[in-house]
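Researcher: Here's a chain I'd like modeled. Treat it as a single chain, no partners, no ligands.
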Amino acid sequence: MTMRIGRLLVLSLAVSAAGWATPLPTRDKLEAESEISSWPGYNGSYAGQRHVDLNQINPDNVASLAEVCRVRVGGVGVFHAGPVLVDGRLFVTTIRETIALDPTDCSVLWKSVYVPDEKETWNTNRGVAVWNGRLFRGTGDARLVAYDAATGRELWRTAMADPTSGAWVAAAPIAWNGIVFTSLAGSEWGIRGKMFAVDAMTGKQLWSFNLIPQAGEPGVETWKGTSYETGGGGSWSSYALDPDASEVFVPVANPAPDFDAERRKGDNLYTGSIVALDARTGKYKWHYQGIPNDAYDYGFTTPPMLYTSRNGRSLVAVGSKNGYLYVIDRATHKLAFKQAVTTIRNRGARLSEKPVEICPGALGGMQWNGPALDPTANLMITGSVDYCSTIALTRQPYKRGEFFLSGDLKFIGTPIGHITAMDASGGRVRWQLNTKSPIVSGIITTASGLTFAGDLTGTLYILQTATGRVLRTIETGGAMAGGIISYSAAGKQYVAVTSGNVSRSSLGTTGLPTVIVYALGDGFTTTLGAAPMPAAAAQTQPSPSIAPLFAQTCAQCHGAAGEGGIGPALRNIAPPKTVEEIAQIIRTPPPGMPHLYPDTLTASDVDDLAVFVSKLK
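Model: Modeled as a single isolated chain. Structure tokens:
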């Protein structure tokens, strides 16, 4: 045990001293890289079924699952990323960091820190795509960046949009046949949603498709007047791909303004839709719209999942914040079935200046992770959020680069979660587990009949897939808002999870971004400190400022410039508050505001944030 920890620390120090230019072998390449299985994309395969054909960890021995190692990969902030495992390396992202880890002992192989070209709109990243030795990810200033997967060296960066419009790149890209697919996020800012294909070698844009039709394009007639110019339609999770049909499937989120549907009267294509495009050319093939003229900030939000039912139907499943999982027939382009996975109440209520209760609210339903498939049990397993809110219209004018909600949103009570299993052929619910906090993590199923999921208190659930019986829970120490994957190396099955997240409102506000790996046995828990910063990146970092801390901890609710959003505006607070009064609010927050001190923020952090907020104008 002592020798192993010492070796890991030596490895980490050696990598740092080398300037991160050359990757180190990991345990003699774990005898052979061919002995390490892979999880090649955000959702595993292009089809996105989140299933692994591994059975070493099973219901009979899951009680002996133990922590192998953990490593902190970033500072306080959002951690939604899904790990990816390719060529013996585990890749994970935070807001600006991209890190390569040994998948069996958490030792850091390299770390690259992105330095933005422009001011970042937002601070969420869901992960990477890997193709032909290259790694691809999005950024908060609307760039797509490529790295050498062996060394972390940046190869190119391409601007996808002007971030001053409110656009950024949050989704985990997918890469295929030399093409990288990505999209713009930022519906709440009134962006013009777009899907892109980029050359993996050069970063050159190959094609783009407007997810909000613009003047002269089919579908623009579904928008009132010129409302399409600020129509939203972001796509911020990930995608699915059928290589044989050369089809890429894009989930499109809500329109803007989020709540004033009358201002944009019409169906508002392609919001609340799944859109199928020709992967090589970007040409429109077909779409299915499940939420026309959305008035509640719903949209199609999860990565699609492709599968074939037992009666031979080719289907695509996609989730929404409206609380339903939709399953569409790929041959007819019509709804095969849909199933509610959380509380649905007052659906279709007309909004006005008087608050109206809606369930789920804008942070409810299915968020950025979709279902997992167990082909043997013929079940789809999905996580959801049970959280209601009130909405009151405010008729807000559009202002470039700021939240464009046109409504006042308030949340009701404390959110809980559900894990739901439904028949993959017809949608009938087989079982549902209620959890003490929301389920937004990735979910996986294994060939041994296990399902893994995590909640936002940091509990890892291990369930019997067929029945939903809880076989084991493990406390990870931080909110679980990112991916869970499983893989094998040198004959041993591992499970890797992400833990630690400070996110919107009260949806998960505990811990620092950490990767944890489990395997069967007594365990040999090894804790590594934060992944060290590469020397080159350290030299080019901007001067220390409280602004990044505000962006990481406060902007999710209060807006990047304090203009307000889910939370109230912080600019020109009336009546004015002293620095100490602001600090006290952070230390002892009112209902609905996350508790960040002292577990996530230090006393010094609180003081710095209070000074920063007091100066917002």
